[in-house]
Prior knowledge:
Layout: E1 4-8, H1 12-24, E2 28-32, H2 35-45, E3 49-53, H3 61-72, E4 78-82, H4 85-91, E5 101-104, H5 109-119
Parallel strand pairs: 1-2, 1-3, 3-4, 4-5
Helix pairs in contact: 2-3
Amino acid sequence: MNKKILIIDDDPDILNAAKIILEAHGFNTAIAGDEDGGLAAFLKEKPDLILCDMMMEAVDSGASLTAKIREHDKDIPIFLLSSIGNATSATIDISSYGFTGVFQKPFDPKSLISLIDKALQ
Length: 121
């Protein structure tokens, strides 16, 4: 069975790029453009892994959404998508916000698939 990835980002270009890359590698995808849509998609779609932007309608909406998801599922891998991902992970403990890891945008497709494959093993 193909694994399902939920992509949550307010940038339609990021959503579309990630969806194309993931589906080309055999993943099923679901997408959402904000915190509320992300929570609804999580509850409806039951994904195996989540890619979530930090700064959407509010600066910390990604962290807020992750906290809500963690109330339902403590173990699902949730990766932060951020244009300042490397700087963010160097200065804060992203795991304290519920994230499994961080991805720098724009992301390298090979790195993205490699990390997802590892996280889903």
